[in-house]
Amino acid sequence: MKILCVLDSVVRPGDRWLWNYLPDCGDQVDFAVAQPPNLFGGIGKAITRYPGYFLNAYKALQSARRGGYDAIVAWESKNGLPLALFRWLGRDRHPPLVLLTFSAKQNAARFGALVRRSLSYVDHLTVPSEWEAIYYTRMLGLPAERVSVCHLGAYDRWSGLPSVATPPGAGGGVPYLFSGGLTDRDYQTLLDAVAGSGIRTMIATRPYIGRRLPIPAEVTISDLLSGAEYATTVAGAQAVVIPLKPVNYAAGLSLVLDAMALGRPVICSAIPAVRDYVEEGVTGLLVPPRDTDALRAAIRYLLDHPGQAAAMGQAARRRFEERHTFEAFARRAHEIIARVVESAQH
Description:
By secondary structure, the chain is an alpha/beta fold.
């Protein structure tokens, strides 16, 4: 197959994204990459980021018309919906478009009629949870046969970190909780849960988010971490806490999977999509969204039961190895892409 991939992540020379994990696959893979800045929230985000996605989608559509591709694969709604909109406006259905990891967030609900028309020019989309497959088919009127559940995977951040085997806090370090990320985070509930507890808590997020929050003495907020610093910080935490707003779509899964890869137990808000990834009492703990008392109790439980916290972390690592490596995700996604291409050719 010849495939055009529409992304917003860095693709270095020789990088083949999903196909790095498909060594026996002979597909030709080209890329159209958007790299908009991510410095603001709210209206600032709309002004600075969204134009880059639309420009990249337009360029991808022009490339697809010239390139003789068997399929276009767009990563997430931010890349796929602008492309689908241009296809709808131009009544352009070739080649088939596969939208991986679709999510209908606030803007999709706000512009529901336009999103539904655009999605009619998407041949197939995947969602990261069973809940979303049911929810989106109802909310957006999508035919069930055009929606597949494709559970996400993450890069294995365990390799190169021999200290991960050491219990968190060993060797004289001060024990801490870790939290991070941008989208749909409810950091206020986490801050309220740890305020006055003396529990050291590290949050990595964008400065524009941290500036709006009253920070207790226990909490340190930094910019987003990257590379080895991020992996080492997550690996050294006693637990990874992911407080989320009560949304009906997937949120926080990247950090959930990274914590699993690094053998850390997760405390996460129990939004529907998360239940496909965190098994209550086995790989972590789930608490009701925006429930400060429940979150505080879950944190205290894991700190007071280090043996159970360690067992949850080990179970999370096994679950990651069995289901959620990036190779496993790549193979699931490729099977879906191949079926769509085969169907279009018959």
